[in-house]
Amino acid sequence: MKKSLILILAAVFLFITACSNGPEDAGTHDENHQGGDAGKDEDSVDELGYTYPLSGLAVDKKSSERAIAVMVNNHPKARPQTGLADADIVYEALAEGEVTRFLAIFQSKVPKMIGPVRSSRDYYIELAKGYNSLYLAHGYSPEAKKLLTEGYIDNLNGMQYDGTLFQRSSERQAPHNSYISYSNILKGAEQNNFQMDEPPNSLIFLNDNEAQQIQGEEANKISIYYGSNPQYNSLFFYDKDTEKYSRYSNGEKTVDYESGMPVAVSNVFVIEAAHHTVDSKGRRDIDLQSGGIGYLLQKGKVRKVEWKNIDGRILPVEGDRQIGFIPGKTWINIIPSDPGLNAAVSLETQ
């Protein structure tokens, strides 16, 4: 009798379990899930995990780190740079004359050392603010100095912290030798009561199915010309095996000075914007508000799109629809609308 009762209870348990695992419960997880499911603690991690807000790559817990935006020198005497390969997003734009400079934004990973650090411009500050970044530079233009001293954005500048938070390398000459460590960034943030646990809002990223359906013409190489000085022209080559674009300056691969790791990105976005020279040193004013046209390269394909400034971020759009990025790193080149994309960009299929 007791054995029969046990068998009956076991059968009932198996029946209930089978019902709870029926078709209605199968496959309910969203592949791009970034938060908790309904009824689940907001900070818990589901089976597929979370993603970093600026790279879209998987992480095992909700990311809470603030973005850090650093002005990185691109003078030939500053190459190869340190830490650049770890940036989630890099903006490249003219700083003066035909000299470009990088705004490197770190969030998913911050290297131990970053540099050489160079001076700020007002439009770089605006871009950094779009990601709620702690902004780092060494020096400033008059327009940038006004924004920084008025507290427009949380910032640490080498003009105030040269020799303390910012250190000079003996291997290079000024102004191409200013570096800052991640530990000193955190130290400076603490000294100034800057909050470092406020992550930026997430970008839009494509899932695997959407990424495989990307439309466009085949383009495995893009050349970008900033002027007559070849030192600042850049190339991106697409590697079909890694599905990433490797960057070159003046024909030389862009790599990390410390590790030798190359810069490899999933998205290359090239836009044109109106530039105006504002002083005798060739400093620029760049219109990053009006929108315009651009080329978006993903998965070895290129398409002509529009760009808009959405909450301080330069993003690709088609009509009223924002285009998602491929998860990974993103490089955004801003070129003058005169001569514009047709003259300053060359696309090739290898």
Automatic annotation (TrEMBL):
Keyword Signal: yes
A Pfam match: DUF3048_C
Annotated DUF3048 domain residues: 54-194, 224-332
Signal peptide as annotated in the record: 1-20
Annotated coiled-coil segments of the chain: none
Region (Disordered) residue spans: 25-44
Keywords from the named record: Signal
Composition bias, Basic and acidic residues: 26-42
PROSITE patterns, sorted: PROKAR_LIPOPROTEIN
Gene3D superfamilies for this protein: YerB-like
The protein's name in its UniProt record: DUF3048 domain-containing protein
